[in-house]
């Protein structure tokens, strides 16, 4: 008995050590990026890999924040993330609730159409032409409307709705509640895990997306954050290539890169702890049924 207990404790200790090592390996890149973003260029040249800076400077952040319209970019990205995620959730939930009902006429063909869009799409040029035809070019709605519903997230929410007890909805309808009242008062409160999960999916997509901003937006005042940061990095990369003889410029460019990465990732990372308790549960429950 004691031998088994010692063996279990040893195995548990090995598991904890392995998990701790894996966690440190995952945190190392983030910690390195954070450290280099606060490190002077001369120190980066002298030390190479910097984990704890000897001196702390905000030079890289000042370079990123000054003169590149970052304030407008944050406003555009916040509007896109908040409004876009809200509209994504509304349309995804409404369509998923309808498709979760087996009595819906034409349910099977609609599901086939949804699944078909997961495998094939119209292509870049037809999507651009459609966006232009709808008059969305050079508007923030060009960043929201084309991706209003994700087929993957729709399938997850539909599977979650199908697992809810049908007796609760039937009893509510017997009392005179309509479909929208059932959805609002009964289904949504029971579906907070999956709603939080796909809400995080949509929010991360909107925050990190930059390609549609390059494709559909020409007005620099409407550039989202990721496009502005990309332009900043390209400008400093060009300056670095033009001044090869100065050894501090590549290190300065590296610090500016890291500062741009921190500015673009930290805000969305701050949202995750509030949704963490719903995240794993929502994904697992919503993906059991297809």
From TrEMBL:
CDD domains referenced in this protein's UniProt entry, alphabetically: TM_PBP2
TM region positions: 14-34, 78-98, 110-129, 141-161, 182-205, 254-275
Membrane topology term reads: Multi-pass membrane protein
Localization terms from the record? Cell membrane
Indicate the segments forming the ABC transmembrane type-1 domain, all copies: 74-275
What keywords tag this UniProt record? Cell membrane, Membrane, Transmembrane, Transmembrane helix, Transport
Q: Which GO terms describe its biological process?
A: transmembrane transport
Q: What is its main location?
A: membrane
Spell out the coiled coil positions from the record: none
Taken from the UniProt entry, a GO cellular component term is:
plasma membrane
Family from the record? Belongs to the binding-protein-dependent transport system permease family.
Q: Please identify the protein, giving its name as recorded.
A: Carbohydrate ABC transporter permease
- What organism does this protein naturally occur in? Paenibacillus sabuli
């Amino acid at each position: 008995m004691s031998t088994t207990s010692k063996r279990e404790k040893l195995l548990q200790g090995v598991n904890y050590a392995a998990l701790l090592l894996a966690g440190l390996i995952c945190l190392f890149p983030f910690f390195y990026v954070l450290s280099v973003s606060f490190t002077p260029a001369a120190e980066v040249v002298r030390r190479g890999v910097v984990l704890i800076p000897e001196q702390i400077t905000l030079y890289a952040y000042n370079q990123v924040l000054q003169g590149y319209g970052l304030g407008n970019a944050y406003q555009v990205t916040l509007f896109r993330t908040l409004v876009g995620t809200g509209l994504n959730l509304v349309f995804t939930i409404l369509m998923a609730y309808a498709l979760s009902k087996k009595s819906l006429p034409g349910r099977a063909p609609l599901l086939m159409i949804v699944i078909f869009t997961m495998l094939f799409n119209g292509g870049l040029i037809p999507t651009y032409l459609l966006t232009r035809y709808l008059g969305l070019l050079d508007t923030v709605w060009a960043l929201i409307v084309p991706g209003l519903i994700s087929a993957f997230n729709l399938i997850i929410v539909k599977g979650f709705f199908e697992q809810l007890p049908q007796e609760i909805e039937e009893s509510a309808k017997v009392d005179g509640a309509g479909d929208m009242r059932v959805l609002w008062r009964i289904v949504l409160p029971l579906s907070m895990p999956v709603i939080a999960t796909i809400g995080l999916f949509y929010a991360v997509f909107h925050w990190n997306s930059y390609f549609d901003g390059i494709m559909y937006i020409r007005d620099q005042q409407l550039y989202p954050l990721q496009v502005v940061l990309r332009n900043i990095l390209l400008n400093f990369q060009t300056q670095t290539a033009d001044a090869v003889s100065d050894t501090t410029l590549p290190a300065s460019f590296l610090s500016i890169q890291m500062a741009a990465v921190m500015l673009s990732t930290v805000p969305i990372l701050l949202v995750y702890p509030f949704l963490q308790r719903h995240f794993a549960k929502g994904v697992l429950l919503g993906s059991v049924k297809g």
